[in-house]
Amino acid sequence: HHQSEDYNFTVSARITIFQAIARGLFWSVLPLIGFDPKMITILLLIHGAYPFFTHTQLIGKLGWLEFVFVTPSHHRVHHSSNLAYLDKNYGDVLIIWDKLFGTYAEEKEAPVYGLTTPLNSHSFLWQHFHFMLEMAFAFKQASGFKNKWLVLFGRPDQIDHRIRPYLERKLLSRNQQGEQTRWLRQFILAQTCFTLLLLFTVVLFEFYLKPIQLGIAAAFIVFSVISTGAMLEQKRWVFNLDFARLGLVGIFIFSFIPSAPLLLLILFILAIILIYYKTIQQQYVSRLYTYT
Asked: Which of 64, 154, 219, 262 would you label with 205, given CA atoms 20 to 30 Å apart?
């Protein structure tokens, strides 16, 4: 969520898989301990809608509202990597809690958005798991119980900032990247739009889909997001992901029309691709990254 170096409404939709799971678990437990589901639904709507509008640079300060509610100005501070703004303005709706507990900061200097140590990768997987790997590395390097405890439960800035660049050099393979062509950018944009549309459609019709169909759609969406990051870094192995996505499309269609001729057609297409895999991969990658 905070990795974005831009600040606009789209940032509000940037949440990690882990955050989505944690939120889901939190809200799902509340009815079990006596909270009225209607109240939870109302809170979810407010909690989901209100913070969306605080992710903008178009709105300045809002007078007396600044004393009670979280405003775009407050939340810009929260998203910035300025030293004076770190660990400030945690509130989503009300700013009074930050003022009570000493985590409030007023927006004075222009915010610089993004992480204090920016990621040097477009990888979806690295964006999700980098900090876990950094913590594991720091934990292994730390000496004594106290230092290991601080790695797990201390402040994030107590972890050596040099670990991330080191792990990126060690774990992330680099390849010679050419200039991104207009075709590649348009292809990535189209794929992103299609993925978002698919996600919206799946959420809208989830009750009409079988569990296996939901699983296939979810896998396709995850593969698509990983594929987008790989395309931005012009990875050759993106073809492997796209071949897997093609297989998922075939299985998804077959789940709706389970006929022997269709199954044979799907298997035939996949078999042809496997037979000429290297040749097709070379042509695919060449056209994807060099076609103008």
From this structure: 262
DSSP sequence for 251-288: HHHHHHS--HHHHHHHHHHHHHHHHTHHHHHHHHHHHH
d(CA 86, CA 76) in angstroms, rounded, equals 11
pLDDT at 207 over 80: yes
Q: Point out which residues pair with 94 in neighbouring strands.
A: 69
The neighbour count for residue 150, using CB atoms within 10 Å, is 16
Provide the token pair at 37. Answer: 């589901």
8 A C-beta contact, residue 164 and residue 130: yes
Residue 150's SS3 state is helix
pTM of the model: 0.77
Confidence at 115, pLDDT banded by 50, 70, 90 = confident
Predicted confidence (pLDDT) per residue in 169-193, tens digit? 888 876 666 677 888 889 999 999 9
Q: 95: helix, coil or strand?
A: coil
Fill in the DSSP letter of residue 233. T
% of the chain with per-residue pLDDT over 90: 35
Domain boundaries, the chain: 9-101, 124-171, 182-290
Give CA–CA dist 76/178, Å, rounded: 35
Contacts of 186 (CB under 8 A, 6+ apart): none
Q: Hey, what long-range contacts does 151-156 have (CB within 8 A, 24 or more apart)?
A: 155/87, 156/131
Query: Which residues, 6+ apart, have CB-to-CB distance to 101 below 8 Å?
Result: none
**Helices 238-256 and 277-290, axial angle in degrees (round to 10):** 110
Alpha-carbon distance of 266 to 249, in angstroms, equals 9
Q: What is the pLDDT of residues 3-60, one digit of tens each?
A: 888 888 888 878 887 888 888 888 888 889 988 988 888 888 888 888 888 998 898 8
